[in-house]
C-alpha cells in the first residue's frame, strides 16, 4: 500500500481478534513509532506491550482504577471486555520532562501523540486493524505504577491491535476541508 493510500484510508476498528503482529511485524511497528517528529531528539515516550497473561494483568489494573475512581459496576464489566478486546495492546506513556527549556512539555506530548499514530499506521500498513483507547482508567494509581510512570508522565493511549473480525471498508472518504483551511 502506498503512503497516501494508507494515510487517506486509515480507519479504527474495535472488533479485533488473533493473530497479533509477529515479532518482525512488531519491530517495524516500533520503528515507525520512533521515527515520529521529535524536537530535541528526546523520544519522550515509553511503550508497554501486553499479550497473553499481560492482558489479564491489564484487566486487573483497569478494574483497580474503576474501584479507585468509583466508576461503577458497569465499568467493571467494560474493563474486562476492554482488556481482552485485542490480542495485543501497546500502552503509550508520554514521558514529559518539564525541565527542558528548549522543548516545552506540550511539544513533548505532541511527539508522543505522533509516535502513537505511527504505531497505528505501521500496524495498518501490515494488515492489522487497531484502535486508540484512553479513558479515566489510564490514570489509575496501580496502572501507572505498573507502567513505570513518574509523576509528570501521562498514559496517553492503549493501542489495541489485532486482526479485524470483519473486513473493514477502506475506501478513501473525501473530507470537505474548506472550513479548516485559510491562506495568508
Ligand atoms: C487521544 C485519543 C484518545 C481516544 N480515546 C478513545 C476512547 O477512550 N474510546 C473510544 O472509543 N475512542 C477513543 N478515541 C477515538 C478512536 O481511537 C477513533 O479515532 C475514533 O473512534 C474515530 O475513528 P477513526 O479513527 O476510524 O476515524 C481516542 C482518540 C484519541 C486521539
The arrangement of helices and strands along the chain is HEHEHHEHEHE
**Bound ligands:** flavin mononucleotide
What proportion of the residues form beta strands (DSSP E)? 15-25%
Count of DSSP helices?
A: 6
Number of strands: 5
Number of domains: 1
The name of the CATH topology is: NADH Oxidase
Based on helices, strands and strand pairing, what is the structural class? Answer: alpha+beta
Q: Mind describing the biggest β-sheet?
A: 5 strands, antiparallel
CATH class wording? Alpha Beta
Helix share bin: 25-40%
What attributes does this structure have?
NADH Oxidase; Nitroreductase; 184 residues; NAD; EC 1.-.-.-; NADP; flavoprotein
Structure description:
- The structure is a single chain.
- This protein has six helices and five strands, in the order H-E-H-E-H-H-E-H-E-H-E.
- It starts with a helix and ends in a 20-residue tail after the last strand.
- By secondary structure, the protein is of the alpha+beta class.
- It is 39% helix and 17% strand.
- Helix 2 runs antiparallel to helix 5 and helix 3 runs antiparallel to helix 4.
- Bound molecules: flavin mononucleotide (FMN).
- Flavin mononucleotide binds next to strand 4.
